[in-house]
Every structure is written in structure tokens, then in C-alpha cells.
Amino acid sequence: MRGTLNKAHHWVTKSIFLTKLNFKATLFLGSAYIFAYLLIPTIPNLSFISPFLIIAWPISTMIFINFFRLSLDNKQTEFKDILKIDKKNLRGLIYLGLICLFYSLLISLILSQDIKSIIAIASESEIQENISNNAVSIVVKFMVLAIPILMATWFSPILISYHNFDLVKAIKSSFAGVLLSIIPITLAWLILLGGFISLIFLMIMIFTVLGAGTNILLSYVLIFFCMVTLAAYIATLFSFQFVTYNDIYKSIIK
Predict the structure, then answer these.
(1) Degrees, nearest 5: CA angle 53-58-60
(2) 51 CB-near residues (< 8 Å, 6+ apart)
(3) Please, what's the b/e burial string for 57-85 (b: 16 or more CB within 10 A of its CB; e: otherwise)?
(4) pLDDT tens by residue, 18-32
(5) pLDDT band (50, 70, 90) for residue 200
(6) DSSP helix/strand/coil, 211
(7) Which of 47, 128, 32 is nearest to 83 (CA)?
(8) CA angle 29-138-226, nearest 5°?
(9) CA-CA distance, 39 to 241, in Å (whole number)?
(10) DSSP-based helix, strand, coil % in the chain, nearest 5
(11) Residue 217: its pLDDT value, please?
(12) Are 138 and 111 in contact (CB under 8 A)?
């Protein structure tokens, strides 16, 4: 158990170190990810782009991974370098993105009845407790349903891009790699998530004491800091992805 905890701790500290190594560029990439995957889907006139963004998600992952790989090697990072993906591997990444799209549609279909029930409850009186219970149920179901696609895509974009694995082999190897270290990966992810939630909670508490509830300017400052923290957290998850790949697949890394 101590070895598992040490490994999780090592991965967390290494991920944070990588995030801080070129922090301005890291925040830029994290902010770009927020804009593309969190803000664009909420804009009515641009929501049609969402399926294409999901298909491009493995490519987006490799942009982060390329960035952290170059940063770790202390190489001069230029925008064209982090976009560099071999053309013969690009097709595999796109096919992987199509799998992500169809799986996300499947999750939406499975959860559609739960979402409709929340909308129906919202129109009734005495709704607070019922909405909370249904929301928790949807979150739990989503997390359970998302586990297979997360396992399939955690390492597969990297294995396709860096080791020329075909799609099926990459997905199988990704599953095997995650299963091999499922406990330290989960622990490290929980530590990173807990740190992010704690930072957000601390900022809200501080700005509430300063009067953000009544001061519009302070409210905007709070939102800004929360967005910066979210961008850093998202980037850290990608650096965590790279760190776990470096450790688990070190035997095949040249």
C-alpha cells in the first residue's frame, strides 16, 4: 500500500512540476481548451461544432502531450512543434475521435430519460430535494458510463502518435495500462481533484469575506481567478496523463 501511495504522490508532484515548468504557455493551452470544449457548446449558433470538437479530442490531447514532452526535454517550444503529428497516425486519431463521438451519443441516449425527469420535476412545487437526488443519480451514472471510454483513450492517442500502434492495439494497450495501475491512477486523480476543489472553495471564501457578494468588480475578479485555476487544473490533468504514460510504458519509450 505504501508503494501505491508513493507512486500516486510521485505522479501528482511530477504533474504539477510539469504544469509549472512553462506556466504561461500551459495556461494558454488550458484556456484554449476551456473555450473550445466548455464555452463553444453553450453558444447556440456554434453548438453544431461540438461533434467535430469531440472527433478532434485525441488530436487536442496530443497537442498537450507534445507540449509537455518538449517541456520535459527542455527543448525550445514553438507552436508548430506541438502541432506536429505524423500524417499516417492522424487517421488513427480521427477514428479514435469518432469512437468518442459515438460513445458520447450513447451516453446521452442512456441518460436522456433521467434528464427529462429532472426537467419535469423542475416544473413542480417542492422540487429541491427531488432535483438534488436526480442530479446526483445522473452524475453517478455518467461517471460509471464514462469509465470505459476514459480507459480506452487515456493512453491510446499517445501510443498511436509515438509508437505507431494501430487503433485496436492502442485501445487494448490503454485498457491494460490503466488496469495495471488503476489504484495509483485513481488516488492521484482524486488528489488533483481535491486540490482543485479546495483552491476554488478557498478563493470563494476569501472573496466572500472581502464582499464579492455585493461588489460587482470583486465578483468578476473571483470569476477570473476561478477560470485561471480551472485552466491550470485541466492542463495538469494532461500533464498527469503524460507522466503516467512515461512511467507505465517506460519499457517501450526510446
Answers:
(1) 65
(2) 101
(3) bbbbbbbbbbbbbbbbeeeebeeeebeeb
(4) 999 888 999 999 999
(5) very high
(6) coil
(7) 32
(8) 30
(9) 23
(10) 85, 0, 15
(11) 85
(12) yes
The answer to whether 202 touches 228, Cβ cutoff 8 Å, is no
- In angstroms, rounded to a whole number, what is the distance separating the alpha carbons of residues 82 and 86? 12
What number is the average pLDDT over the span 139-163?
90
Q: Could you read off the pLDDT of 97-150 as tens digits, one per residue?
A: 999 999 998 888 887 776 666 555 555 545 555 555 566 677 777 788 889 999
CA–CA dist 83, 33 (Å, integer): 14
Is the CB of residue 247 less than 8 Å from the CB of residue 11? yes
Q: Residue 239: pLDDT above 60?
A: yes
Longest Cα–Cα distance in the chain: 63
Most confident of 14-18, 103-107, 216-220: 14-18
DSSP assigned state of 215: -
**Do residues 25 and 77 make contact, with C-beta atoms less than 8 angstroms apart?**
yes
Strand locations in 86-201, DSSP E? none
Give the global pTM.
Answer: 0.88
Which 3 state secondary structure label does DSSP give 103?
A: helix
Annotate 137-200 with DSSP letters as a single string. HHHHHHHHHHHHHHHHHSSHHHHHHHH---HHHHHHHHHHHHHHTHHHHHHHHHHHHHHHHHHH
CA distance 65 to 85: 11
Cell digits for 8? 500516486
In whole angstroms, give the CA distance from residue 177 to residue 125.
Answer: 49
- Report the distance separating Cα 114 and Cα 120, nearest Å: 10
**Start-to-end CA span in the chain (Å):** 30
Residue range 37-62: average pLDDT?
88
